Amino acid sequence: MSSLQSWRDLNIDEVNEKVNQICPLQSDLTDSEKIIFSVLRDAIKEKGLPIQLRIAGGWVRDKLLNIQSKDLDFTTDKLTGVEFANIILDFLKRNNRLDLAGRISVIKANPEKSKHLETAHMRLCGIDVDFVGLRKETYKQDSRCPIIEVGEAAEDALRRDLTINALFYNVTQKIVEDLTGKGLIDLKNRVARTPIDPIQTLTDDPLRALRVIRFSCRLSLAIDPQLSEGLKIDEIHKRILTLISRERIGEEMIGIFLRSGDDMHRMHAVDGLRLIAAHKLNDVIFPLGQEKWNEQEISIGICIADAPE
């Protein structure tokens, strides 16, 4: 019996109920994820598509850390995300299972929001999924908005902010791919490291400096010494101030400080303040005109954040 037949008789309400299941073991798939992957593999097989379908980034990292994640970002080679999403929708329509999918919405490229390619978004088996093509990026000195070209999986991995965010799950082959050669060991050792030279990574897109702080707090990562030194460079700080809007800086800070009120997230906020101070990012993130933060003020801020309610 094919996997298509195995989910043909599923009740969509039962599928939606399984979205919130938490994986009991590392790298285990939820029932909803298994169904989604079966649908996608069957569509590829039926169409005879010579492609490799992968999940990129956060879902792979979180799955390996046994953290529940609903952030399914698929990458496709040889097809755009929109083209592939339409193939999936047509496949389900021909098999009378459109109830498993919602309509496709197209998210236009918006580099300021870190959306550098047109992305297809749809709801599949009760989970929000995105489809986008693999890419490589080149940057101009005066912009954090890259010139985008169709790329290979390795090129896509090397352009990412951290090695642990550059892992792929190859849905076609059912394997985890570590194309930087460092992601799995860094995940095991809880290290924040860039796939390529950290100064180049931070220069290309200085927003990555703030993402390093956020992920280090959230996942209790030790920042690689070379990356740590790169975070302190004045030129990187200047690029943050000149190339990144206050809104985008604020969004990254929300990820550190305002996730929730529980004790764990209070610890994240304290760690965030310490890392900001240690890497001399105070005046970049919290500009106070011509005034400068001194060590006493930074210490007071940390003590306030660390104080019990």
From TrEMBL:
Pfam families the UniProt entry points to: PolyA_pol
RNA-binding among keywords: yes
Any one Gene Ontology BP term: tRNA 3'-terminal CCA addition
Source taxon at top rank: Eukaryota
InterPro entries: NT_sf, PolA_pol_head_dom
UniProt keyword annotations, A-Z: RNA-binding, Transferase
Segments forming domain Poly A polymerase head: 53-192
Any GO molecular function: RNA binding
UniProt keyword annotation of Phosphoprotein present: no
PANTHER family assigned to the protein according to its UniProt record, in alphabetical order: CCA TRNA NUCLEOTIDYLTRANSFERASE, MITOCHONDRIAL (PTHR13734:SF5), TRNA-NUCLEOTIDYLTRANSFERASE (PTHR13734)
Family stated for the protein in its record: Belongs to the tRNA nucleotidyltransferase/poly(A) polymerase family.
Protein name as catalogued: Putative nucleotidyltransferase activity protein
Organism of origin: Streblomastix strix
